[in-house]
Structures are given as structure tokens and as C-alpha cells.
Amino acid sequence: MNSIFASIEHWPLSVWAREDEYAYFLALIFHAWGMALLVGGGVVITLRVMGVAGGAALSNFRGFLPVMWLGVALAIPSGFVLLVAYPAKAFTNPIFAIKFACLIGAALLLRRLIRIGAAPRNSRMLAVLCLLLWLAGVTAGKLLLHTYRVLTVS
Amino acid sequence: MEADPIVNVVAIGHWGREVGIYGLMTSRWGWPIAESFHFIGLCLLFGTVGLFDLRMLGVARGVPLRALHRMVPVGLAGFALSITTGLLFVMTTPDQYLHNPAFLTKLSFMLLAGVNMVLFYVIAARGVWLTGRDDLPPLGARIFGAVSLICWLGVMTCGRVITAFRPPAYFWCPWC
What are the residue boundaries of the structural domains of chain B, listed by start? Predict the structure, then answer.
């Protein structure tokens, strides 16, 4: 594994992200914007299913999905830069896997919630779970900074 | 470093130690847990207020603004969470924040967002409640929405780069 990490660390993109004065912080900023839009959309839709703003039809909340896709479009490339800058830091930390598990779970559950609608009573329980998964994904992302064991291998 | 005649950074630091905030925050999980709640609060704030702003700008037409506005209390709870945890950071290492250009710019964005919010409710809110569910609100309301959105994205941006502008290297004291 270490040889794979080492070879990624020599990619020009990886070197640039680590050594350029602005690159890493620019990636962090775009990642924050992307995650805010993605999770923000998740928050507004799950709150609606939980019964907040009950006067608005859930189907109309699909209009917020492009906001979430814009968030994904910002968060994935910026996240990729952050990842290749320090591949060993991410891939040796189980919290990195937990972050993705939470976010993928939240996205799948949200899709299901939009499909089945807000009416069934267990929808609300699923919406609470979905909201917690979005927030757990963000929390896990935040904790990556505090829990890594290896920074670079080369 | 120059002395600050208005904000007594040393006294705040001492107080943070005396009341135990420093000890709590510098323990193994103190800072990471506070940071996690800081971000959860921001998510709740942006997910409600930020998306309400986007609806005012024409995203997700069909969602009535009046109904969507009922989510704002959740955003306020998120804001309270972020302010509380944010104060814990400042009380723990006041010198790293109170003279930090990124932090002071962040505070300026928050102040602008607050003034913008008050003016929104005084001037534009009534027109928003009367807006049809498929319609755009009046231009004034849209401007308040755009300013709010820019402010909160600015808050996030400045927050992200606070560590890049740490004093004493980036000592910044407009009032000194």
C-alpha cells in the first residue's frame, strides 16, 4: 500500500496541492462550499419530511436537488485534490470510510424519502436518521483533521 | 506584538483558564468535539437560512416562501450551537483569533448578515409572505437574499482560512 501512496504523492497534482501557497486552502474553501450546498439541501428536505414547513408539498422540494448536485460538483473535485495531496493520511484512517458510508447512506435514504413521500409515519423516523447521517458525514470529515496517524509516506 | 488598548487578550486567556474552558478544550477530544458541533450548527443554519435565500433567488419555485420560513428556527438553533462552540475556541486561544485578519473578516460578514436580516424583516418580509408559490419575491427581497447568501458563504470561507492567518505572523488590529 505504501508504494501506491508514495507514487500518488509524486503526482504533479499532489505536489502542487501540498507545496503551493494557495492550492490546499482553495481546495478546502471549495470543499466547504460544496459540502454546505450538498448537506444544506439534505437538511431542508429531511426537515420537510420530519414535518417542518408542512404547508409546502414535498414534491416541490425536488427543486433543491440541483443545489445538491452543484454541491457534489464542487465537493468531489476539491475533495480529490485534498485526497491526492495526502493519500496515506486519508486511506489509513477508518474515519475516512465512515464519512463516505454516512454520506452515501444519507443520499440513498434521501432518494427513498422523496419517492415514498412524507405521509407514512415511519417516513419521519427515516428522515431523522437521514438528517443524522448527513450531519455525521460532516462530523467525520471534520474529525479527519484530528485523527490521522500518517501524514505522508515519501 | 503591539498592545491592544480595547480587547484585553491576556485577561480573556486567563479567564478561559480559570473557568476551566482551556483545560476542557485542550483535552484529547475537547477541540474536535467542539469543532464537530460548530460544523453541525453551520449545516443547520445554511440548510435553512441559506436555502431560504436560494428560494428567494428563484431556486425550487413551487415551494411557498412562507412555509419554508418555518424552518428558520432550526437555523437559529444551529447558529446558537455555532456561536457557543465558537466562543469556546476564542476563550481557549484568544490571541490566535482576536488579531487574526481572517477571523475579523468573518466577524464582519456575520455583522453584515445580522444587519441585513433586520432590514429584511423591517423592509421586505411583508412582500415575501404575499409572494405566490411559483413566483419570485420583489427585487428588494431578492437583494437581501443574495447579501445573506454571500455573507454566510463568506463566513465559511474566512473560517476555513483562520489557520492560514495566525498571529503573530498576521497580527491585525484595525483599532490599535
Answer: 9-165
